[in-house]
Design a protein that fits this description.
The chain is built from 14 helices and 18 strands. The chain is of the alpha/beta class.
């Protein structure tokens, strides 16, 4: 899609065509395109069908209602912040007294939309003309144009002094895919940090895999997960320097770091706790271990074991029924004995592929029960721990 074909989607004819192709299944596209090209320009038909595909993909991030009204580019769908995460960040900024934000590298406007809905005035800046046009159309489509000013510019040349806060979301994908070096971001992370340090308040969206040693001393670092999936990390400036937190959505649930030492390794107890990914990324496993009075199964593995069940929102608890050295034949015999027909395979510190193990270990005559097997190391030895999600029983 180019600027001209996108502009055609904003015409009355384009709007009508988008309504007509809504919900078109991939298998139907050729027939639908052939029919519509009898009465509409081929380029417009292709743009409408492409937009319909993007809207279907975007529903997972933006919700079906918004996605059906918004406009997207392939990169925009891929790189946009999930609405739940953007809303969480916008609410925090609003709670910090922010009334205006310069949203740099704004993309198609996902964060700008959440900020505006929180009552914050937004300057959304991007240097790509098509992306800017899409962001402007999204602000109009969602009735937020009065709060969102969209500007085509190089973010490094934008004066942000008039704004209460700065939000920067550097591009972390290039022509060859995901970029892992923060200095290869566009713009580089060092520029984003320098810009943040000049602002009264700032938030920088970064990849969750950023090394902790790369976090500036002036920043608060937050790792965010949504429904158990780690989505991003954020460096906050002007809040609580040095703080590390894990935020779990929905909720939100917030676990703050207290600088605890690594938990001790102990023998596998009755329960195994699998910390949320944001907790692990934030290096806050020790905080969860203290909460459940547990220790690690291995000094290099983020599994916590304990003798008692103490439910926590920051980890999923499993009751362990069996512990055995890694041996597929023994596991298969045990599953047959227990009548297991559904097997969930989880792993940390194991090179075994879960699907491969599932195929080899499940008996051909599937039983009615389910189980979870953890492939891990216990005190350095490859081990299988068999169990199931823990249930807290009434006293």
């Amino acid at each position: 899609m180019n600027d001209v074909s996108f502009a055609s989607l904003l015409t009355p004819e384009g709007h009508a065509l988008l309504d007509e192709v809504r919900g078109t299944e991939p298998a139907q596209e050729l027939a639908v395109a052939t029919r519509l090209r009898r009465d509409h320009p081929a380029e417009l038909v292709s743009a409408a069908l492409g937009q319909a595909r993007l809207r279907q993909r975007a529903a997972a991030k933006f919700g079906a209602e918004d996605a059906e009204r918004m406009y997207f580019t392939p990169n925009g769908v891929e790189q946009s912040t999930r609405t739940t995460v953007a809303t969480h960040r916008a609410r925090r900024l609003r709670s910090l007294g922010v009334h205006s934000v310069a949203d740099l590298c704004s993309g198609i406007g996902g964060d700008a939309i959440a900020l505006a809905r929180a009552g914050i005035r937004v300057l959304a800046v991007d240097r790509d003309p098509l992306t800017v046009a899409v962001a402007r159309a999204n602000a109009e489509a969602l009735g937020l144009a009065e709060l969102i000013e969209v500007r085509e510019a190089d973010v490094t040349e934008v004066d942000t002094q008039a704004y209460d806060a700065v939000f920067v979301d550097p591009a972390r994908r290039g022509g060859r895919g995901r970029i892992f070096d923060p200095e290869a971001y566009s713009p580089p992370l060092s520029w984003a940090i320098a810009t943040a340090l000049k602002a009264p308040l700032a938030a920088l969206k970064i990849a969750p895999g950023i090394p902790h040693e790369a976090v500036p001393a002036e920043a608060e670092a937050e790792w965010i997960s949504d429904a158990g999936d780690v989505k991003e990390a954020v460096l906050w400036f002007g809040t609580e320097p040095g703080l590390v937190r894990a935020t779990l959505l929905p909720g939100p649930r917030e676990l703050r770091g207290r600088g605890l030492p690594d938990p001790a390794v102990r023998a596998v107890g009755r329960y195994l706790y699998e910390p949320d990914g944001a907790v692990i990324r934030a290096h806050l496993v020790a905080e969860v271990a203290e909460e459940v009075d547990g220790g690690l199964v291995d000094e290099t593995i983020a599994y916590i074991t304990a003798d008692e069940l103490r439910p926590t929102p920051y980890a999923t608890a499993y009751e362990i029924t069996d512990r055995l050295p890694f041996n597929v034949k023994k596991l298969k015999a045990l599953l047959r004995e227990r009548g297991v027909g559904v097997l969930t395979v989880k792993k940390r510190g194991s090179a075994v592929e879960p699907e491969e193990l599932r195929k080899k270990a499940l008996p051909k005559s599937h039983g009615p029960h389910s189980a979870t097997v953890f492939l891990t190391r216990v005190a350095g030895a490859p081990t299988m721990l068999l169990g199931h999600p823990a249930q807290r029983h009434a006293p």
